Amino acid sequence: MCSRDGDESRRAKRKGLLLSHLPFAIGNLRVSTAIATKWLRCRSLAWFLKRRGRRAIASPLCPGERNQRMAVFVQQLINGLTLGAIYGLIAIGYTMVFGIIGMVNFAHGDLFMVSAFIALITFVLLTTVLGVGSIVLALLIVLIVGMLLTSLWGWTIERVAYRPLRGTFRLAPLISAIGVSIFLSNFVQVIQGARNKPTPPMIRDVIVLFEQGGYTVALAYKQLLIMIMTAVLLAAFWYVVQKTPLGRAQRACEQDQKMAALLGVDVDRTISLTFVMGAALAAVAGTMYLVYYGVVSFSDGFVPGVKAFTAAVLGGIGSLPGAVLGGVVIGLIETMWSAYFSIEYKDVAAFSILAITLIFMPQGLLGKPDVEKV
Amino acid sequence: MAAVPQGTTATATRGPASAASSTIAISLPAALKESGIAALVMLGLCVPLVTLRSDADESGRLALYPRFGLTAIFCLAVFLARLGYLTLWGKEARAARRPASRGEAIKTVAAPRYTLTSVGLPVALGLAVVYPAVTTLINGGLSEARYWIDLGILVLTYVMLGWGLNIVVGLAGLLDLGYVAFYAVGAYTYAILSTTLHLSFWICLPLAGLFAATWGVLLGFPVLRLRGDYLAIVTLAFGEIIRLVLINWVDLTNGGAGISSIPRASFFGIPFDDEDNGFAAVFGLEFSPMHRIVFLFYLILALASLTSLVTTRLRRLPVGRAWEALREDEIACRSLGINTTTTKLTAFATGAMFGGLAGSFFAVRQGFVSPESFNFLESAIVLAIVVLGGMGSQIGVVIAAIAMIAGPEMLRNLGFLKSIFGESFDPNEYRLLIFGLAMVVMMIWRPRGLVSTREPTAFLKQRKSISSDLVKEGHG
């Protein structure tokens, strides 16, 4: 569970496997079922043995090792915050789009996956073909290229699949978004292949914080990078929304599109830009995901997408700091749940939080109450 | 590859045209310029994702394989389609859309006496009844026709699921993204009851329906107060939770390995085997394993017909009218004193019950259930069938199910496609791609689906159906 290298790659692999839980799009269902079953069987066996082994030998959870408890907790806190930061970045895209046109952009999670693929290909292109030696430079270029191209994807999706549906019945954009989501994940599967794509670890170094009873608590540079990145981007986008003319236009459209249009706000352009902003943030999240886990596959969009949506709802839909706060809460709950309760049920925990929040607290932590208008 | 450029362009041409406010016909240079821009956008979308394919080389590291030709084909296809749309068929489409977008007075058209549903359903039923006989004749033997009858069973299962979901989505207007959960409940009910308590299929079938309906009520009760899109997400979450519980509750469900050797269905107590008291011996036939398959075919046909019958009857009852009213405008319903929660709950439970029945049929047919058969993808496929068929339309679901389930199977058997696209071409790989695209195109082109008229079931003196694109829907 700590961030030493061996553990890290295993963790990444496990994460990859876990997400490929949903063989989202393997054409022949019967074959896919058989493969998935076989694979699940090996996996659950491996997990079982691993869990048993850990419990028996050097488990940080085992009550005999009380002296490590604090260290384990801090390590989980760091891991959870990192995961939460990634969720938060995706959640901002959900929350902005929902705030402005009141639709669940179901394809946002898959856009995140597409951006991870763009980052992966750009990174491999830079390092192996063009021979860029410096990782920092390569990552910077990957980020810029990824943000630009993913924004183009976001813009195109809005233009093609959502804009013509404005003004039709309420579920139409949602169904269209589900279609886009299915299309994107299968498009990537067809065009890039169904296998997991592993990259060599990009940033290996860690800062050792402290040691307790032989358990080292370490903060990896990549975790630090992800957290700082999220904080900076949140501040930047919050500034854009609160202080710039574009942000003012966005908030105006959020309140009343017709009135905003009458007052000279270009509603279509504002909505397009909202999608572009969301996509750019998804691109950052995708790149960070790749840096953190080092592996991506075509089915990786769905579960993080749903969790990020949970984060957006939990934080209060329409609120940017709420999205990141929700992301951090979800990330922490997920990490702590897998560490202290059961890793098998961590997705159940996340989905249950989604259901419970929507049922009992639909306005979220920082959101405004939803007023129903005729 | 065929599906990709075609589909992409089909959707790519839609957006800007409908957004264009000018009604003046576009000149050729302007059209060329706009098509050029569309192609450039496509190039931008393609750049890393299509142009460079990442794959592990011999040493296991990722290497990139360029595909410039494919990128060029994509961009050219977008260019041509956009150009064609702007110069050839775009104007008419815009002209046709104009009255709707300006919201002119609502025209009503007298409903035709024979609708596609009223004629099509009996015809479809008749075709389905003779289907096993026809395939047997064509293939020259019962065993030779097995593939076709199996395909028929598969399609009918999806038709039944589609009809079940149609009650929830099409009639009551509640978007349920976790419908497969009820399918799973039905399947596991039969699998567990038959392997542990050794109950027969005919006892388990109603139990499965009942059980799934109970689950529908249990899951539905807390969430049905939510607005449409939140409801969709919560049902999605419930679907996933049920699947994850099935994977992890190993004691009950045997986990990811699934439950195998589930007992087969009997002919109302007479087993399909070659014993003396078996089906073949009792009816004086020569034993053939195909008897069971044909029986399963008629069983799912009967179950699907039951779904359709119950749905059409319910539509004419007060509860069915309440469903449809709810779909049109929830606030109006509430002000008229309809209890929206119980109305939604009945729709949810009825839909869930049929899902459960279909699930237990699935279990008895496969003889094996595992959680991987019940992922979100299945929900999406069933939803796609309902959406494409036209929400609320019975015959539309049949057509969509045939096109979506049997279509790719048919394409696979066409030899010439392989000679065009290479030996490894498998249309099934593109099935979901087409599903996704079709959902988008359908929503833009005809949000009410292929077969869609909104025919009121309650009317004064004369029945009038309102053209679907003139109706704006309320809060779902």
Report on the structure:
The complex is a heterodimer of chains A (374) and B (476). With 374 residues, chain A is mainly α. Chain A has one domain. Chain A has 13 helices and four strands. Chain A has a two-stranded antiparallel ribbon with strand order 1-4. In chain A, a hairpin with a 2-residue loop joins strand 2 and strand 3. The longest helix of chain A is centred in the first third of the chain and has 33 residues. Chain A starts with a helix and ends in a 14-residue tail after the last helix. Chain B has 476 residues and is mostly helical. Chain B has two domains: 100 residues, no CATH class; 355 residues, Orthogonal Bundle (ABC transporter involved in vitamin B12 uptake, BtuC). Helix content of chain B is 67%, strand content 3%. Chain B has 19 helices and four strands. Chain B has a two-stranded antiparallel ribbon with strand order 1-2. In chain B, strand 1 and strand 2 form a beta hairpin. Chain B is globular, with a radius of gyration of 25 Å. Chain B starts with a helix and ends in a 10-residue tail after the last strand. Chains A and B meet through helix 2, helix 4, helix 5, helix 6 and strand 1 of A and helix 1, helix 2, helix 3, strand 1 and strand 2 of B.
